[in-house]
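TASK: fixed-backbone design
INPUT:
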């Protein structure tokens, strides 16, 4: 349930197409749907502008399907399932003609909705190995209404590659910089652009990277200004931050 759905419901009451009692009944079902194994927050989009997202790890394909079917039964904006594998994707493939699974980003778009474009996000990676996290960010931002350009493998091990992308980087309203290893890419990018930079450390790297902890700490300790840092491998979270920045600018 989003603001547009509530407004449409109230307009239907005003026209006499819907009784106040019927509207009250629909509203009474808004906050939580108790499915036994999950409690769905169907009120979230109305509060935050972002509907509940299905996080697939730890859930069986049957549970993901049941949750998706329930959420699709409620009007609202785009619906996503993250960190999905092929078994999750196969379980919900028949829930709609527009269901789309990206195996690189491990993300499913269940309900694409036309959203007025808000601005431009450029997603860059330090290396090709960072692409799964970057693709999660790309598809999330696109689904939420951002125009997205994805540029792979411009890490600082070959600084000329970073500099070669500076025109695209400077044209962005928000940059999402995804990197593992030593995590230096966001600092370099933030020193080149005026836009906010959302840094995403990844778990890519050898032993002393400690599963992305080294990149996380490097990004948190950056000497460049204007960087926000999300959790390790959290491309989805970075895209939501970028979307909220653009929504605030557009309002």
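OUTPUT:
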């Amino acid at each position: 349930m989003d603001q547009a759905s509530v407004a449409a419901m109230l307009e239907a009451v005003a026209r006499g197409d819907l009784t106040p009692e019927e509207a009250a009944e629909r509203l009474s079902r808004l906050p939580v749907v108790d499915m036994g194994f999950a409690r769905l927050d169907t009120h979230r989009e109305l509060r935050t502008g972002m509907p509940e997202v299905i996080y697939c790890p730890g859930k069986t394909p049957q549970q993901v399907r049941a949750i998706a079917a329930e959420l699709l039964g409620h009007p609202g904006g785009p619906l996503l399932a993250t960190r999905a594998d092929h078994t999750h994707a196969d379980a919900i493939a028949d829930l709609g003609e527009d269901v789309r699974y990206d195996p690189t980003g491990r993300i499913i778009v269940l309900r694409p909705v036309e959203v007025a474009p808000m601005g431009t996000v450029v997603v860059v990676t330090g290396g090709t190995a960072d692409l799964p996290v970057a693709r999660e960010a790309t598809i999330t931002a696109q689904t939420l209404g951002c125009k997205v350009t994805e540029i792979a493998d411009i890490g600082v091990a070959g600084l000329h590659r970073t500099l070669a992308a500076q025109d695209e980087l400077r044209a962005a309203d928000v940059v999402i910089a995804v990197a593992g290893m030593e995590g230096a890419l966001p600092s370099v990018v933030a020193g080149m652009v005026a836009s906010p930079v959302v840094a995403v450390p990844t778990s890519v790297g050898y032993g002393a990277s400690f599963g992305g902890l080294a990149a996380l700490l490097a990004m948190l300790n950056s000497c460049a200004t204007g960087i926000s840092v999300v959790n390790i491998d959290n491309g989805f979270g970075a895209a939501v931050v970028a979307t909220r920045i653009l929504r605030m600018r557009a309002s």
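COMMENT: Residues 92 and 142 are 21 Å apart (CA to CA).
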